[in-house]
Each structure stands twice: as structure tokens, then as C-alpha cells.
Amino acid sequence: QVQLIESGGGLVQAGDSLRLSCAASGRTFSSYAMGWFRQAPGKEREFVAAISWTGGHTYYADSVKGRFTISRDNAKNTIYLQMNSLKPEDTADYYCAARFSTHSTYFTDYKYWGQGTQVTVSS
Predict the structure, then answer these.
(1) Residue whose C-alpha is closest to residue 77's, from 7, 19, 3, 9
(2) Largest interatomic CA distance in the chain
(3) Which of 21, 29, 89, 121 has its CA 20 to 30 A from that of 68?
(4) Burial, 96: exposed, middle or buried (Cβ in 10 Å; 0-12, 13-18, 19+)?
(5) pLDDT value of position 26
(6) 95-120 confidence digits (pLDDT tens)
(7) Is-contact 79 70, C-beta < 8 A?
């Protein structure tokens, strides 16, 4: 069982940066691949970024590649999403998710989810 709590969302202007955190409970956190997904009003949940259980491999949606960076600190049971050069189209609720073993870009493959944190980017 893994419980996830996101934090760090807020209201920012276009071009600003924001760092999201996701704190996980559970003694086997390091065995889980982790992902960030987002969902804007009226839209489907979409993949943003994922990181392997070792942290050695990262994956990004094309829309955020070069602007967002996912990382993890297994000693702190925490993953991060550094978001730079934010755009109004990045506005959404952001969710972290955990999946045992390998990563995936499909939200249906993730078993554990946080409650989400809201990010609003004004133009």
C-alpha cells in the first residue's frame, strides 16, 4: 500500500517556475516507478512525466519536454516535478501516481494516486 500527497501547486504567471512535490508513505517506495499526470477542466487525464524506480530513467510528454524535470529522492520517499517556463496551457490539476516496478505513460496502469494539486498559469 502506498499513500501519496502532492503539494506545491499555486497561481503563477506565464514564464514562471513552480516545483511540485509528492510525498509517499510505505517502506517499498523505491520499488515503484512514479509518474505525474494532469487533468484540465473538461479534458482527459494526460501523462506528463515518469521516472523509473531507480531514478535512472525519465520520460516526458512532448508538450513539457525541455521545460519540466522529474526527479526522486528515495531516501525521503519523495518525487518532484520542476516546472519552468510555464504556459497557460499547463493549467490543470496535477497528480502523482505510483506503479510497482516499471514505468508507464498510461494512467490506467497506475494503482496508487494522490489527491492532486492545482496549478494555474495566467497569461
Answers:
(1) 3
(2) 42
(3) 29
(4) buried
(5) 78
(6) 999 999 888 899 999 999 999 999 99
(7) yes
CB neighbours of residue 15 within 10 Å: 11
What residues pair up with 82 in beta bridges, in sequence order?
19, 69
Q: How far apart are CA 115 and CA 97, in angstroms?
A: 10
Q: Would you give the distance in Å from CA 87 to the centre of its chain? A: 16
The tens digit of pLDDT for each residue in 51-101 reads: 998 889 999 999 999 999 999 999 999 999 999 999 999 999 999 999 998
Q: Look at residues 74, 72, 37, 46 and name the one whose alpha carbon lies nearest to residue 57.
A: 72
* Alpha helices, H only, 17-104: none
Cβ atoms of 89 and 46 within 8 Å: the answer is no
